[in-house]
Amino acid sequence: MAERNNNEFEGKQKNIQILYEKFVILNRDLLNFGVSIEELKEICFKRRKTVHTVQGSQKNAQHSSFIVAVTVVCAVLISILLKIIFDSIIKNTLGTRCLLPNNYFIWEATRPETNCSMCEDVNSVLVFGNVTRDEFSNYAYSSRPMLVKGAALHWPAMKTFTYHFLKEIYQNVEGAYESIEEECQILTFKTEFRSLEDVFAMPESRVLLEEGEKPWYVGWSNCHPDVLAIMREHYTIPHFLPEDAEHAHMDYIFIGYQQGAVMHIDYISRLMWQAQLRGHKTWKLVPPPDCDHICSGISFRVDPGDIVLVDTRQWYHDTHIDAGEMSLTVSSEYG
Question: Transmembrane segments in this chain: where (predicted)?
């Protein structure tokens, strides 16, 4: 895939070079004909037509006609050049994993206007105890942040999911690491890691965040069917979600210390649930900027076994983990 992208990029570069050479030849001919630099700027960059009405002089009439013709040619060439450059940038950007997904400037520029009713009158997280599916049904598709206490305490994952358990899965399942690079996604946040293999290659002292070691926090999506099958033997879809809800074909793991994700919104297609399997995490939610005049931010702390439900497509959020604790969560989408 990388080789194909490189070949496409080289092809685009050759096309740009050809157009550049045509511009050089065109500019040289115009200058030889008597067109000034100022006129060239007006023709090609200010998109103005400089048509001189000259009487009596055949040379000036030809000059004027030539400028009009060149204006059209120049405009066409510029359009082609811009299209090639834009197409090259977009294709190569999309072909680079994690470049676009982590570029919040692009996301923010394309974010649709928010309906502020999603956060109006929300002053705290809505907390449930032993909630049933029927009791939860009125809130299931709401943008209201919710916390279901102890809903995952009975999952085997509360005991079995560890750094070393996840490492063993990826080392033993053929193609597991490759799936992260080719189909899934890894978020390395502020770490120096470049792949999941790097994450699982760190020394034990750093895994445990012993004194002198740098803190780390990463997340990744699991879309390899064999990996997903093994993992889902240790947890289930939260029991309170609607029976007819659609669920994603991939789940997410987030693991590490100290500050988790920085303030951001998620560009995902559905609502999100996240089960806290290890450690304590504090969520901070902030409404979209266009709702600042109506809504206010909230924060809440999550204990092991709790399940958080947040519309992370609309609520800006960051997370902080209790000092010295490793946080491990599993999450997915529904809708």
Answer: 66-86
